[in-house]
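User: Sorry, what's this?
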Amino acid sequence: MAAALPVAQPAVSQHLKVLKQIGLVSDRAEGTRRRYRLNEAGAAALRDQLDGRTAGNRDR
């Protein structure tokens, strides 16, 4: 994934660490690498939060 992004690999690792801490991704070890995947429940919770905020902004 890091090769496809315009940032250094350590920066990608730090971003993935934060996303894991807040529950948006999960990971598993595969040898010396980690495989990340979207946590559907975390993404749904974020979507609900964002939908609630944008709905509140429409009422103003």
Q: What stands out?
A: DSSP finds two helices and two strands in the chain. The beta strands are 25-30, 33-38. The first strand starts at residue 25 and ends at 30.
